[in-house]
Amino acid sequence: MNKKMNRKFDTKDFIANNIVPIIFVVLCIVCYPIAGYSPEYLIDQIITRLVRNSFLVLSLLIPIMAGMGLNFGMTLGAMAGQIGIVFITAWNIVGIPGLLLAAIIATPIAIILGWFCGKMLNMAKGREMITSYMISFFMNGVYQLVVLYGMGPVIPLHSDQVILPRGYGVRNTIDLINVRRSIDNFLQFNIGPVRIPLLTIILIALLCVVIIWFRKTKLGQDMRAVGQDMEVAREAGIKVERTRILSIVISTVFAAYGMIIYLSNMGTLNTYNSHSQIGMFSIAALLVGGASVSRASIKNVFLGIVLFHLMFILTPQAGKNLIGQAQIGEFFRVFVSYGVITLSLVLYEIRTRREKAESAKVLANAQEAKA
Amino acid sequence: MMENNKDILNAYVLPVLRDIKEALKAFGLPRLIITGFLLLLFIIAPFAGISVGASLTDTLGRFGQNAIMVLAMVPMIHSGCGLNFGLPLGIISGLLGATLAIETGIQGPLSFLLAILYSTPFALVFGWGYGKLLNKVKGSEMMIATYVGFSSVAFMSIMWLILPYKSPTMVWGYTGEGLRTTISTEGFYYHVLRDTLSLRIGSLSISFGEILFFALFAFIIWAFLHTKTGTAMTAVGSNPVFARASGISIDRQRTLSVIMSTWLGALGILCYQQGYGFIQLYQGPMYMAMPAVSAILIGGASVNKATITNVVIGTILYQGIVSMTPSVMNSLIHTDMSEVLRIIVSNGMILYALTRKSGASR
């Protein structure tokens, strides 16, 4: 690290290493005047989206630390959170107690799903990302089986608000009027037109502190060792498989809580879409913040959410004002989300290969010098 | 007497049992379950009041529609690029060819040939770029391929809106610009292959046109894999170090395989459209790689090994299940869980293949 700090600041290197955030900053600057939103509106929107998404995006950090890449399996945690929310809505439990109960229901489900995901990823070392991605697809099927056919006859739920008129299966969209913004409104104050939901911010800050503290614990250190080099870690007596599973379990549980916060802020649940969308957007946001497959910090999370959601708000309106079709803006932001993930993955691979080649060269030179 | 029996047991019965066990192991448990499930469906079908002939017709029709897209997996698996999750890129080349062919206004079977002709340059260019990209990211091709597919679908969604297509059969009626989400192939190349050489026996109808069309390309790929270039490609996939030592350009072989896969993807979607009857634009191609990937894996392929037999068996099994489950389930329990089952089976199969040790190299 020190070596890097001592090296002279190199503009070219800086751009090369931060190309994704830079593209986004430029994009936002270009779109801002075209969209024509007022700054107050934008700040309010950004704060809303920050409190809505931070917890979810933060949940991605721990598997990255353990060298398992972007955890596409966070969708599993989101599913667990949604199941919790479905239950409390059916039982008509209101406000913060309801959300707490949802979290209590979601925790064991998230632990089981996370354990399953971790087990699978241990069987697919070296291609964790595509595997976790396929796990999210596979579990999506299982989730649909449970929610669409199991809820009602197998899992007793009888609420017209939640269950489809045919008697089983959960409705497509559920209105979460019972818990809408209940965390946000608890300790909210306004600065001008901008709403500041203090309790949610405290929760997010708490998670940040936990993550920083966690890095210093024995388990956190083990995870970093495993992330650096699995074989060396194994030699050092670290239980590699267990550590990896734990990192995924922790991430999944946090994702479940994050999803509960997200849904309470949104106020509606898209039973069959919310979780898969949130997986893609969270990962894209983290990458926009300058994170890579192997390195991500809390700073990346917040920068990423601000930039990504600024783009999200601006492009449809900019598209509408520019070409007269809001749809182009919509497609554009989908393209940008996918494009960002692609670009970051490609850049990461290229950089890793280059670094490997360089270190091999250094090693070869050193050996030559010795001889 | 007892001794004798034991000898016979040791000499003849046990080895056979062991062989069966080995064969089953090689076949793989999930594959066994899927085959068993499909057989069960065909056995139940008559009791559930479903004609076996019609079911077979449906399965074979879907086979003809989808087989070439599954075949598109083969070259990339051979060269060690893994499963082609970037199939949507090939599909997009096909869509460009299809829409351009309809734009010319030429009707009938000729439009099918035109669509193939027009999609070819796109497939070659896209495949070339895609191959170059995958060469830069050796080791994590599959993840990047997935997102290349998604990004290209999202990018083309914008393009379908703004490209200057004029043909009234394709653009939105009220604005006169921007392509529709689904375009009928009726009057152009609807059922061009399916209705050629089709044979009807009672409720069963077999379209030899589609099957022969697939067989032609399957044969070409098979023959190609046995040429010098084809062997080199396989060598790159199975042992890159050895391949480099024997003077094969790894990157060139891989690019070639990606171009082939992309082109077959383009051809595959055209074949699909002629059977299905519609061209699906915008978000349509987004997840089309998954069924194809899953089918070849069900057929016995792994992340780094695939044959034409895998393609044929896999497509029949996969499409058989897809076409049989809804009808059988509907008539038995009056609920259609088939879509959910399809998701679980196809993604479960991909997951199974990814977690096998055999492909540990990537």
Question: How would you sum up this structure, described in words?
Answer:
The complex is a heterodimer of chains A (371) and B (362). Chain A has one domain: ABC transporter involved in vitamin B12 uptake, BtuC (Orthogonal Bundle). In chain A, 74% of the residues lie in helices and 4% in strands. Chain A has 16 helices and 4 strands. Chain A has helices spanning 2-6, 11-17, 19-35, 39-58, 61-65, 74-90, 95-122, 128-150, 182-186, 198-216, 218-228, 230-235, 240-266, 274-288, 298-323, 326-370; strands at 173-175, 188-191, 194-197, 268-270. In chain A, a hairpin with a 2-residue loop joins β2 and β3. The longest helix of chain A is centred in the last third of the chain and has 45 residues, at 326-370. Chain A is globular, with a radius of gyration of 22 Å. The two termini of chain A are 30 Å apart. Chain B has 362 residues and is mostly helical. Chain B has one domain (32-38, 50-355): ABC transporter involved in vitamin B12 uptake, BtuC (Orthogonal Bundle), CATH 1.10.3470. Chain B has helices at residues 2-27, 29-47, 52-71, 73-78, 87-104, 109-136, 141-162, 208-225, 228-238, 240-245, 250-276, 289-298, 308-333, 338-354; strands at residues 182-184, 198-201, 204-207, 278-280. In chain B, the strands form 2 sheets. Chain B has a two-stranded antiparallel sheet. In chain B, strands 2-3 form a two-stranded antiparallel ribbon. The radius of gyration of chain B is 22 Å and the shape is globular. The N and C termini of chain B lie far apart (56 Å). The model of chain B has no long low-confidence stretch (mean pLDDT 85). Classes of the chains: A mainly alpha (371), B mainly alpha (362).
List the helices and strands and how they pair.
The complex is a heterodimer of chains A (371) and B (362).
Chain A: H1 2-6, H2 11-17, H3 19-35, H4 39-58, H5 61-65, H6 74-90, H7 95-122, H8 128-150, E1 173-175, H9 182-186, E2 188-191, E3 194-197, H10 198-216, H11 218-228, H12 230-235, H13 240-266, E4 268-270, H14 274-288, H15 298-323, H16 326-370
Chain B: H1 2-27, H2 29-47, H3 52-71, H4 73-78, H5 87-104, H6 109-136, H7 141-162, E1 182-184, E2 198-201, E3 204-207, H8 208-225, H9 228-238, H10 240-245, H11 250-276, E4 278-280, H12 289-298, H13 308-333, H14 338-354
Antiparallel strand pairs in B: 1-4, 2-3
Helix pairs in contact in B: 2-13, 3-8, 3-11, 3-12, 3-13, 5-6, 5-7, 5-11, 6-11, 9-11, 12-13, 12-14, 13-14
